[in-house]
From TrEMBL:
<dbReference type="InterPro" id="IPR051058">
    <property type="entry name" value="GDSL_Est/Lipase"/>
</dbReference>
<dbReference type="GO" id="GO:0006629">
    <property type="term" value="P:lipid metabolic process"/>
</dbReference>
<protein>
    <submittedName>
        <fullName>Phospholipase/lecithinase/hemolysin</fullName>
    </submittedName>
</protein>
<dbReference type="InterPro" id="IPR008265">
    <property type="entry name" value="Lipase_GDSL_AS"/>
</dbReference>
<dbReference type="GO" id="GO:0016298">
    <property type="term" value="F:lipase activity"/>
</dbReference>
<dbReference type="Pfam" id="PF00657">
    <property type="entry name" value="Lipase_GDSL"/>
</dbReference>
<dbReference type="InterPro" id="IPR036514">
    <property type="entry name" value="SGNH_hydro_sf"/>
</dbReference>
<dbReference type="InterPro" id="IPR001087">
    <property type="entry name" value="GDSL"/>
</dbReference>
<keyword id="KW-0378">Hydrolase</keyword>
């Protein structure tokens, strides 16, 4: 985990519950306040990102009249809970979708499948953060935790480009991540976590493309681009004007890679194919619902529910204590 605390950078790589107010106020006892503070260190968890964190906003984007079918879990692009679900559970918080692409709710998750750091559609990072700010009177809560987990689609988009076009594009994407983190800081946020992007070059989609004639080096290229993007985000975050905000970068890239490289220890028998074919809404020829736990990948891009759990539990363990108020 990499910590940036009160304007300083340390690299290790590894709110009280609001009292409901109607027409009259209410007050918690000292014991209740202590218990609430200990069980919920942050008042809320706000998430900005893509399909690795989308807990249901994709339905609003696609104007779906029904939920995603089984084996999709609760409108997530996987067969189980996502990394952010495990982070939320560890903090005794919820991470419901904001549904801002349709009729916005009080949900705290603005991540949308397909979202990019540097793009201008209404599913992308600028729009996610702008929508949050608009809905929250241009203020970020000093008691909440803000989590950014985005960049995989930006990396994937550059897999067919050559240098320096691909790295220039990822520089711009990293700039957007840093700029949106700075906006949260400037609007009052005191607790921010940024997750590094897992190795996109190891996904079944890119591995299959690398097996095609003339594309033998694509997997390594995309892996290198993933490392490059993460390093640029790290660099640009270290240059922000953080004041007394605590900004923490958690190395989910390495967490995911360690699990992948030791797959057998976790019971995985397949790390190169997706169990499910999302485009066709059917299982692949080599998998079935009963075999999901054997597969590292849910489909040709996204981790399986088991993989999300393994990564999510480790990420949750690295969430820092709140910044001192």
């Amino acid at each position: 985990m990499m910590n940036m605390v009160k304007g300083t950078w340390k690299q290790t790589f590894l709110a009280p519950l609001a009292c409901a107010i109607a027409l009259s106020g209410c007050q918690l006892s000292d014991d209740e306040e202590k218990e609430t503070s200990e069980s919920r260190p942050f008042s809320a968890l706000y998430v900005f990102g893509d399909s690795l964190s989308d807990t249901g906003n994709i339905g609003g984007y696609l104007s779906l009249e029904t939920d995603l079918p089984s084996p999709f879990y609760d409108n997530r692009i996987s067969n189980g809970k996502l990394i952010v679900d495990y982070v939320a559970e560890s903090l005794n918080l919820e991470v419901e979708p904001s549904l801002y692409l349709g009729e916005i709710t009080d949900g705290t998750n603005y991540a949308v499948a397909g979202g990019q750091a540097d793009a201008d559609q209404n599913i992308d990072l600028d729009f996610q953060v702008d929508t949050y700010m608009e809905y929250h009177s241009e203020e970020a809560s000093p008691k909440a935790l803000y989590l950014f987990f985005i960049g995989g689609n930006d990396i994937l988009e550059q897999r067919g480009e050559t240098s320096p076009n691909n790295t220039n594009a990822l520089n711009l994407a990293a700039d957007k991540v840093a700029a949106n983190v700075q906006e949260v800081i400037d609007k009052g946020g005191k607790n921010i976590v940024v997750l590094t992007v897992p190795d996109v070059g190891k996904t079944p989609k890119v591995l299959k493309e690398s097996a095609e004639p003339g594309q033998e080096g694509r997997s390594q290229l995309v892996s290198d681009l993933t490392v490059y993007f993460n390093s640029q985000v790290e660099l640009k975050l270290s240059q922000l004007n953080m004041g007394d905000t605590k900004v923490t970068m958690i190395n989910s890239y390495q967490i995911a890679l360690d699990i992948l490289n030791n797959a057998a220890d976790y019971g995985f028998t397949n790390t190169t194919d997706g169990c499910y074919v999302t485009e066709d809404l059917e299982f692949s020829d080599i998998c079935s619902e009963e075999q999901f736990d054997n597969f590292y990948y849910f489909d040709n891009i996204h981790p399986s529910g088991k993989t999300h759990r393994l990564i999510g539990e480790k990420v949750a363990a690295e969430i820092p204590d709140p910044a001192e108020s």
